[in-house]
Amino acid sequence: MTEPSGRRERKKAATRRKIADTALRLFLEHGYDAVGIRDVAAEADVAVTTVFSHFASKEALVFEQDGSFEQRLTRAVTDRAPHEPLIPALHREIQALVRHCLTDEAAPVWRMVDASPALRAHEESMMLRHAESLATAIAADLDPPRTATACRTLARFVVDAYALARDADDPQATVDEVFHMIEAAWEATLPS
Question: Is the pTM of this model over 0.90?
């Protein structure tokens, strides 16, 4: 008898979570570069192939929540109230994301990312991908429409606001300052 897909999906999600949690714990305890995929697999009591069936790379283990970041950004566009302006919705979401990354739980992870060239490169690649998804959501949602360049530029600035704030002495003030500039630039792209 086959397992119901709901149960199978729950088991897969639990295995993925266990692998990610184990990897993060090992990385934080021993250092990212000192821990290999085999170490993670052994500690999580799974095969190396199981790790790779859930995660494309060692770096992906650190950024396990990558998809939710992108979803939150695109939902800030697509799920906002019908007449709510775009920029304030994105500003609010970036503020929330920055608050989360500054929590006591997340801070050690970001210190690890900042200390690793491989993780920084992976993060940069992810952020470019997130910006492209956000640009697509923005372009599909606008009335009046804006150019593809305007949508892509806005998306990059929004994603960069997050990165700049994470490294700032006053993250919330940094987000506010960047969004002040973003709003002014966005208004300048309105069709005449």
Answer: no
